[in-house]
Amino acid sequence: MTPDSTGVLLTVLTATYNRRHTLPRLYQSLVRQTCHEFEWLIVDDGSTDGTRELVEGWQRECRAFPIRYHWKPNGGKHTAHNLGVDLARGTYCSVIDSDDWFAPDGIEKLLAQWRSLPPSMRSRFVSVEGLCATEDGTLIGSEFPADVFDSDSFAITLQRAVDGDTKGMCRTEVLREFRFPEAPGTRFVPEALVWNRIAQRYRTRFINVVVAYNEYLTGGLSQQRASGLLLAPAASLTYNAEILGMARPLPAKVKARSGANYTRFSLHQRVGVLDLLREAPRRGWVMATFFVGCALYLADLRRAARHGSRAQ
After folding, report:
1. What rounded mean pLDDT belongs to the chain?
2. CA distance 58 to 99
3. Average pLDDT of the residues in 23-51
């Protein structure tokens, strides 16, 4: 494992927006790492809370690793991620949100696992992923089926007893190949849309080691996901259509959920019922869950009316 021509092995990438109050915890966790073979790249998605001044202070004081800062107009996390991947100098990239932080040996454990992969296998793998926990050490989700488990990012959600967050490092060249769509006016794209696409071509090594900690803040990305889906019905429709179209065997509950959501977001996109059914992958499952999807769509409209807005 060698760094690219810039001399950087790993880019820790953080897309942030008005998180000046949480970034210091992430910064301190990077300072405390047992391995400093990385740069920290912060892509600021239009913050107005003094994030720039905070980071500039760290740039002056930090000697353990380089810190790079790039400000852009607010466009959504997916646009900041794409830009960050373009700007990353590392051969590998570890994406971590501004309200999360690494365990002291998190980066060292991830790099060690990648180094343990035989060179002949590495082209088939995109990443190494570890467990996440809350601040008190409670696992977010369940452990993987084995302490070292090779799978992919879609299949692992079906193989864990309880799905949960993971944190890891990916090959930067693959992240550049699989970009988030940036349709005009779109403020949110389901992250799994991209990870599912990657999972169709590349494997991931999962390890039963806590490498990072998460805190779910009020107004954070996790809590915004449900409303975000309504603000991006086109991306959400694509996400569910691609799950239905997967060649791999899928559990009935996955096909039923995606079938209902396919109808739901088709209606948000003003797709007519006949066209909806004609174009649907796994048409039988879409037809079987059609009225559930209609009910979800109507519930979305009622929810939007209560909040004085409507999905566009």
Report:
1. 91
2. 17
3. 97
Looking at domain 10-220, does it have CATH number 3.90.550.10?
Answer: yes
Ranges for all domains in the chain classified under CATH 3.90.550.10: 10-220
What's the pLDDT tens digit per position in 144-185? 999 999 999 999 999 998 888 999 999 999 999 999 998 887
- pTM for the whole thing? 0.89
Give the chain's length.
312
